[in-house]
Amino acid sequence: MVWLVTKYLITAAVVVLVSEVAKRSDRLGGLIAALPLVTVLALIWLQVERQPQVKIANHAWYTFWYVVPTLPMFLAFPVLLPRLGFWPTLLSCVVITLVCFWLFALLVRRFGIELL
């Protein structure tokens, strides 16, 4: 139980760090947010918990493929925000991401990569 609480606290601290830095500097906040900090933490947690190397490698592999279809959201958000406001923009970006993910999954399936 202590280990689980420790994981929560460290992972939450990363999110808080990003939001606090972003308040002070758009660029530095974006840079830190773009770093794969959550993935690195997840890889560390899997290693510390003695998960098989194949499981750790698969996590990194699938993370790569799941990140690609999220990228259009980061272009759409600043374009939509002044037009729609925050909450409609956020909802629109979630929909855009889901559609991009579905289309991307169909595309990469042709190359033998199963995401769904």
TrEMBL record:
<protein>
    <submittedName>
        <fullName>DUF3147 family protein</fullName>
    </submittedName>
</protein>
<keyword id="KW-0472">Membrane</keyword>
<feature type="transmembrane region" description="Helical">
    <location>
        <begin position="60"/>
        <end position="80"/>
    </location>
</feature>
<feature type="transmembrane region" description="Helical">
    <location>
        <begin position="28"/>
        <end position="48"/>
    </location>
</feature>
<keyword id="KW-0812">Transmembrane</keyword>
<keyword id="KW-1133">Transmembrane helix</keyword>
<feature type="transmembrane region" description="Helical">
    <location>
        <begin position="86"/>
        <end position="108"/>
    </location>
</feature>
